Amino acid sequence: MTRGRGLLYLLLGIYAALTLGPFLWSLSASFKTVEAVSAWPPTLIPRPFTLENYTYLLEKLPFLRWMFNSLVIAGIVTVANVFLNAMAGYALARLRFPGRKVLFWIIIGTMMIPGQVVIIPVFILLSKLGWIDSYAALTIPFLTSAFGVFMYRQFFLGVPKSLEEAAMLDGMGPFQTFFRIILPLAKPVMAAQAIFMFLGSWNGFMWPAMLLSTPAMYTLPVGLSSFQGQYYTLWNLVMAGTMFVTAPVVVVFIIFQRYFIQGVSTTGIK
Amino acid sequence: MNLDRARAEKLAAFLFLLPILLTLVVFLLGPMLYAFYISFHEFSFMVPKNSKFIFLDNYINLFSDDTFLTALKNTAFYSLGVVPVQMAIAFLLAVCVNSDIKGKTFFRVAFFLPTVTSSVAVSLMFMWMYSKTGIVNYLFSFFGIPAVDWLNNIHFALPALMALAVWTTVGNFMIIYLAGLQEIPKSVYEAADLDGLNAWQRLRFITWPLLKNTTYFVLIMSTIGTFQVFDTFYIITKGDGGPLDSTMTVVLYIFKAAFKHFDMGYASAMAFMLFLVIFGLSIAQRLFFGREEEA
Amino acid sequence: MAAVQFKAVTKTFDTTVVDKMDLQAREGEFVVLVGPSGCGKSTSLRMLAGLETVTDGSIHIGDRDVTALHPKDRGVAMVFQDYALYPHLTVEENISLGLKVRKLDPAEITERVASAAKVLELEKFLSKKPGQLSGGQRQRVAMGRAIVKRPEVYLFDEPLSNLDAKLRAQLRIEITRLHRRMKKTVFYVTHDQVEAMTLADTIAVMNEGKIQQVGPPMELYRHPKNRFVASFIGTPQMNFLDAELDGLTLKTKIFSLRIPDGLATEFTDFPKHFTLGCRPHDISRAAAGAGTAAMSADMVEQRGAESFLHCVQDGVSIVARCEPEDAPSPGENIHLRFNLARFHYFDSETNERLVAR
């Protein structure tokens, strides 16, 4: 028994080292000098320890601006998704109207469409609208998500019907029932979805890379990837850059990991 | 019943569904139809009016395009390598994390972290670690393995990217397996204990069969994911699929055709071929699982 | 004037769930709808509440036809089986929300909530959330939510079925007290006939969408109109035997009894074969003799104050009551005497009661 347990911890420990190692390694590099980062054999502890990489990025490159862009875009996308998807999910789960089933399957079906199929027409459409290089291009097409709607619908299906009936007897119409009774119940789903949508938007690369071309409008990932092209071998600087993208996410994730994992779980099956 | 109530519900449903329907129609379904339309054309991005209808030529040309065939082969190789490995590790880790151990939260967070990290950050981290003087070569040197420039070697670039893919996505699938595991009632295992099953038998006769639906879901998601992979390849190879097309995937080629060669008709045809392949694989996996259920 | 009236109410989903139901309740009457699951009792209640549409017929509260009215305009309040408390609101908010939605004067709301909380002894819990309460407390909050609305009619949909036996007994008494105090009409749905017997002024027994019998509990117990009601009301269930009349001798497979001359006229219109019903409480152990049934004791069900014998003979099973100290041991051969004065007779074909006593 104890030997099996020891083996278990060993296995888990090795894999944890594999997943955490690269993060620690990069973090350490971001505090190293150019000489130290390319020293052979490599060392984990940065010696000498320096903050110069970060100050350089902040002074010489628009990292703060990119971060701001990312925050605004991810913020808008998150708030919109949390509410709009909830509304649609509730309608599909509970409201009675003709064509509900068909509509549900259409929305679910759209999840099958790979983004690559539509990126060309969407690029053309957004160019015609003059939205390339604007926040609109990265927010308006992403205000809702079929996946998010599905997640909410699954949750609302499990809410007892009697709650809505009690609300009806209390004199509430469908709008009041939704906003006063149903939505507050969905708080855990809202939290999970908020994190999903925020991370999705914050980390997103394909769409912003296609839809943004002026450096001032870049999001952090796009900015970072363009910056890497210029500073190819200065790994200490590049790793400091990756920390700008990674650190906020890691912090947010560790704080909210419970909701996040719940979220993945509720959408996984069924 | 009360007509006003029924009407209020319909009105609410309409308003609640309006945002998603609008975005889906304008930014997904409409564009998809348009993509279908331009896939039959020699499409001119600058002057769409000058596009020439060439019917199936784009589709036919795909099969004599060596780059496309290489991309297809690479994608298939990538998928066949990544999917089973990532599923096996995810399952194993889920079973371990779900057992009665200390520090569950720590392991869950540690395993999941790569999944929530920006693909750009991950790509850059691995570019550095895979470089000729990187940590990977350093660690391998202890085993007497000579240093390799992993990402610039036509033999090793694709496998290196596959390892990266496994590293980033295992956490996600582990959580899905974990959710499946937690749905299995404790009493089932207690009954198994009374029946005298050992750890391996419990895994073989209880856990694995009860997780069949989860496995199916993970298989589909994992397959789709590998066929659509873009970010890491694009960032690491600068959109080129190099060296010498050894990391050219279908999605990467779609982008190259569309945004470098501006041959959007051809790129759209390719996107539809990819869609068909993914769709076909999903159906095939469904059939496979369906048949097993009857047996 | 009837406080509540169902007039030929029919509800059809895929099949007919409630079939031409007629039922009246006086103002202040406690009506219990009872029946096996799927008999249409809950659907009837939900139609009265306005949660289900009426396929045909009409429902009246006071002198208003409420058939097409919105639930909130019917002057009813409902207590749900799962209580349906809003989990994110405190007890106080749960109770007052319906009044706030109706835009009542805040002072009035405070006053009503306070008085309901006092009656239901909820004062200590007002700032708690439903998740922090026990089942019995939640049940009381659900009642509080109904009371503050000052409805004309209270509706209860199996409100005690999620509670344990002890709490159930206690809350039955509380509900009775509450009803005496409010003096409002109550419609109460349950599948538990003990609950029906203890609570009701009037019981309506339903089966397969039809009302079988309406009346005070003891009337239903003493004079069930048909075999279904006879078997549904009373525990243990009534015994049924095939019987025939041979002159003035009542014959069954296990005993024969001579009918006293004074009762003979009652049997004049009887068919030759019919069904005889006898409650376990009307059967007792006796010494062997004329008119007794010789049976073998199969099992003894101890209830503490009394015991029930499960006996068999010639393929006939009988449950009889006896004093615990008289209980035989299993397998023992015993004799049972059936109390002819308490017999019930039913037509074997239609299952209707044969003699109106």
Protein described:
The complex is a heterotrimer of chains A (270), B (295) and C (357). Chain A is 76% helix and 0% strand. Chain A is mainly α. Chain A folds into 2 domains: 1-50, no CATH class; 60-266, MetI-like fold. In chain A, helix 3 crosses helix 14 (235-268) and helix 13 packs antiparallel against helix 14. Chain A is globular. Chain A starts with a helix and ends with a helix. With 295 residues, chain B is mainly alpha-helical. Chain B folds into 2 domains: 2-53, no CATH class; 59-294, MetI-like fold (Orthogonal Bundle), CATH 1.10.3720. Chain B contains 13 helices and 2 strands. Chain B has helices spanning 3-38, 57-62, 66-98, 104-116, 119-130, 135-141, 157-183, 186-194, 199-210, 212-228, 231-236, 250-260, 264-294, and strands at residues 41-42, 52-53. A two-stranded antiparallel sheet of chain B has the order 1-2. In chain B, helix 3 runs parallel beside helix 7, helix 3 crosses helix 12 (250-260) and helix 7 runs antiparallel to helix 10 (212-228). The radius of gyration of chain B is 24 Å and the shape is globular. The model of chain B has no long low-confidence stretch (mean pLDDT 87). With 357 residues, chain C is an alpha+beta fold. In chain C, a hairpin with a 2-residue loop joins strand 4 (56-61) and strand 5. In chain C, the strands form 4 sheets. Chain C has a 6-stranded mixed sheet with strand order 6-7-8-3-9-10, with helices on both faces. Chain C has helices spanning 41-49, 91-101, 106-119, 135-147, 165-182, 193-199, 217-222, 227-232; strands at residues 2-12, 16-26, 30-34, 56-61, 64-65, 76-79, 153-157, 185-190, 202-207, 210-215, 239-246, 249-252, 256-258, 273-278, 283-286, 293-302, 307-313, 316-322, 333-338, 344-346. Chains in contact: A-B, A-C, B-C.
